[in-house]
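Q: Hi! First time doing this. I have a protein sequence and I read that you can turn it into a structure. Is that right? Here it is:
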Amino acid sequence: MKQLLLAASILGLLACSPQQEAQANANTTPESGASFNQSYLQQMGFTVESAQESSIPGVFEVITDQGLIYVADDGKKLIGGRIYDITGGEPVNLSENVIRKMRQDDIAAVADETITYKADNEKYVVTVFTDPTCGYCRQLHNNLESYLERGITIRYLAWPRSGLQGSAYQQLKTIWCSADQKAALDAAKNDKRLPAASCDDPIDEHFALGNKFGVRGTPSMILPSGEMIPGLVDARRLAAQLEQD
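A: Yes, that's right. Below is the predicted 3D structure, encoded as structure tokens:
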């Protein structure tokens, strides 16, 4: 039997001013109708996207701009950690299932913002957060044909490793604003000069989305199941994993 350590920490009971208590719209999320006081999360900097009751009575499962969290006691207590069902032979990470669904929904919402290299015999679509200055990202891109040959379409989203500044950030903005995005991405990953281009680009939004998903480096692959694989996985191993999924 595997030993499982479940860590859950209460981060604290937060005071709320009478003015905040009076905010009627702080109590109900529009998507689910779940009712709890959101003002405590809001003053911590969270934006609530959806919420519903979890499998634990009195605990809400909340999707925020910073990912999945749990709250209890009418939103007064924030719970850190993950929920597992331990009634079977092996523990089941219920939180991971929620996170995967979140990623699937969010990826679908930005599908038209990706730079896509489509496999002729497409079997799977894998979304990759990329940075043109990342060596492993370049290795993946230089071997792109090996993924396409196995029926794996690669869709790129931007995630500048140095944040919203520096050369990678500027390159990504230029790439996504280029008339030929693929040619610009190919050029950037081979240290070729990019022609000037500017537009209302989605780079900041892609970066925020990656942070929400838990991206900490590039490449980070999002599989059709919503599972995230940090780092480079070669085409053969990736195809094998996709077939198992």
